[in-house]
Design goal:
alpha/beta, 4-stranded parallel β-sheet, 5 helices, about 40% helix, globular
C-alpha cells in the first residue's frame, strides 16, 4: 500500500495524491491518504497558515488511513506480542518512508509496494 501524508493547500494536495496514484499504479496496489497533519495543525499563526482537506471537490472517493496503518510505518509498541508481530511483518514487506524525492528519475527506485510519502 502507498500512503501519502497530505499537507499544504489545494495544489500541493493534488500533487501529493497524483504521486501516490502513480506509484500505486506502478506497483499494482492501492493508495490511501493520511490526514493527520491537516487535522493536528488546524490553527493558523503568524508563521504558519493552516490548511484543510480540499480534495472533496473531486468526484472520487479517496480512502483514508487509520491509526494502525500509520503505526506500521511509525510504530509505537505497546506490548511485546505486538512488537514481535510488527517486526515480522515489517521484515517481509520492507516499508519505505520517503521524505525527499531528490532526482525524479531515481524516485521510483527509492520506493516499494509498501511506501509512506511524507511531504510532497
Amino acid at each position: 500500500m502507498i500512503i501519502t501524508k497530505l499537507q499544504g493547500g489545494h495544489g500541493n494536495q493534488m500533487f501529493q495524491v497524483a504521486t501516490a496514484f502513480v506509484l500505486a499504479k506502478h506497483y499494482n496496489t492501492k493508495f490511501k491518504l493520511d490526514l493527520s497533519f491537516l487535522q493536528k495543525n488546524n490553527v493558523s499563526t503568524e508563521i504558519f497558515t493552516s490548511r484543510k482537506y480540499e480534495l472533496d471537490v473531486f468526484n472520487y472517493k479517496f480512502e483514508f488511513t487509520n491509526e494502525n496503518e500509520i503505526d506500521f510505518f511509525f510504530p509505537k509498541y505497546k506490548n511485546v506480542i505486538k512488537r514481535i508481530a510488527r517486526k515480522s511483518k515489517r521484515a517481509l514487506l520492507k516499508p519505505q518512508i520517503i521524505r525527499d524525492i531528490g532526482n525524479p528519475d531515481d524516485f521510483v527506485k527509492k520506493t516499494s509496494k509498501c511506501t509512506y510519502l511524507y511531504g510532497y
